[in-house]
# Entry
Amino acid sequence: MSLSLNILIVEDETPAAEKLERYLQRYSTDIKVKAVCDSVENSIAWLKENQSSIDLVFMDIQLKDGLSFDIFKEVAVQKPVIFVTAYNEYALEAFKVNSIDYLLKPVTFTDLSASLQKFENLRAQMATTEAKQEKIKSLAESSTVKTYKERFMVKVGDHIRSITIDQVLFFFADGRDVYLVTTRLRKFIIDFTLEALEEVLHPKNFFRVNRSYILHIPFIQDVVMYSNSRLKISTQPAWDKEIIVSREKVSEFKDWFDGVH
# Structure
């Protein structure tokens, strides 16, 4: 049997601690006792500094300076605990904390083996549960990460071409038709509404300034104040029609242009 564990023993009787350590080594030579604490005070101090280095605690209940339950009042014990005691009246209180088993002295090797097997089974179940939870979390996160279009297919006569996002100057609507305008000022009709484009374009880079235009931020050359608290935009390369930010969009546009999302 090979079980790799780091263990803390809380026990004020040296012979009992040594016997427990012998049994642990007999169960698996890969088990290491990191420390033996003989009091409530020492246990609190050790756990505050070293708890992350252990997997399991064997803990007597009656120690020389009080009951080991006092340890839990001073430090958040996050590791499972197997209580080892000569008294059975503390069993109910033991299971209110991190206890996974309660052994009565004198402890036999069979008793200890059964407790360690129980710990192994619980750890395997927890590992399986955590793996399932991580998978569910990963699937949930991947399903909520939105992807945006990186290219658009356009028709040129009988030919089909692909235009990448970095080639897009802006999009605009003219009646029922929606056009993609490239940085070379070429226009292509695309099979999207402006509303649909807003869903597939990255909001960091594209903004709908009015009912007719969705602009691409790298190609906005100038923004100037216009009548009725509106804004007028110039693009580079220059477009031969006015592009005006509608009044209700001005505040939102300024935040977007300033990088506030």
Observations:
- The chain has a mean pLDDT of 91.
- The longest strand covers residues 31-37.
- The helical segments are 14-27, 40-50, 69-74, 91-94, 109-144, 194-200, 250-257.
- The two ends are 57 Å apart (CA to CA).
